[in-house]
Amino acid sequence: MIIAIDGPAASGKGTLGRRLGLHYGLPHLDTGLLYRAVARALLDASTTLDDAEAAAEAATRLDPATFVEERLRGAEMGEAASVVAAIPGVRAALVDLQRRFGGDAGAVLDGRDIGTAIRPDAHAKIFLTAAAGERALRRWREFEARGEAVALEAILADIERRDARDSGRAAAPLKPALDARLLDTTGLDVEAVVLAAIAIVDDAGRGRAGP
Questions:
Q1: What's the predicted TM-score (pTM) here?
Q2: Ordered structural domains, the chain, with CATH
Q3: Rounded to 10 degrees, what is the CA torsion of 49, 55, 61, 64?
């Protein structure tokens, strides 16, 4: 079983992906980490994020087993990942890695284009969203918990920029798959979101099984 979770920045995709992976006994891939790792490689090499050739080359050398997740988190890396994700060569280099994840056993993948471009054959597709202001507040709380002092206004501005970039890029723009189920998490806590998502996945499974 393949479960695809798409949605804008800070909508809770990673948290939901991990919880669904545990619930169904499936491996989980936060595909956003791949793009953050590409951006991290460019920054470490003092290369500009818009260097398409260097970014594509960095994408071909990624080894998720070597990721140091702490170096891939934070406001700077989220913005940087959104920049490199708009580079067609980067996306092309990472497509096969994402499609192979989980093999025949199945997986939960979350990102921006899982249900539309990476796994359009997914058994269940969820488009997770929330109001921009609420997403900014959630991200601010995450930064506060890690000891990062970032103004709420700056986080909101960053989210709005990323929304515009992700939705407007030429390569696999952020949009719901035609057969995705919309799950708006505005005003919902984590447990409510997980229960709603499980209901969507189970319903999709019954639909595929037929009468």
A1: 0.87
A2: 2-199 (3.40.50.300)
A3: 50
| Token digits of residue 158 | 């960053």
List the one residue out of 163, 170, 122, 147 whose CA is nearest residue 3: 122
Residue 56 tokens, joined: 């594509």
Tokens linked to 160? 């709005």
pLDDT truncated to tens, each residue of the chain (211 aa)? Answer: 999 999 998 999 999 999 999 999 999 999 989 999 999 999 999 999 999 999 999 999 998 888 998 899 877 898 899 899 889 999 999 998 899 887 878 999 999 999 999 999 999 999 999 999 999 999 999 889 888 888 999 999 999 998 998 898 887 889 999 999 999 999 999 999 999 999 999 999 776 654 4
